[in-house]
Amino acid sequence: LLDSLHQEILLFYFPLYLFPCIWFCKIMSKTKLLALDFEVFGKVQGVFFRKHTEKQANKLGIRGWIMNTKKLTVEGQLEGPDNKIRDMKDWLMKTGSPSSRIDKAEFSNE
Q: Which pTM was predicted?
């Protein structure tokens, strides 16, 4: 296992025509992890929302995935330490990408 100074970020990109999803993860130390599903509504497609979500998740040390939906929302899953998950939920509800407009964010299976 890698110590906290030598953690590696692992990113997996799938071509949009095969699977319109960005996977992001980070090797995490042994802590209590929480997981949840999310869906964000508003102007969240075509504004680099997924890319900014991936960047924020990696910054916080959270792993998961995000994808566009046919309903013009984005949905995904997150897993990480409870305090970091709270920060990410707040980011998904209030911040998003610079060009996005977030109407609401729903969280389930917490």
A: 0.72
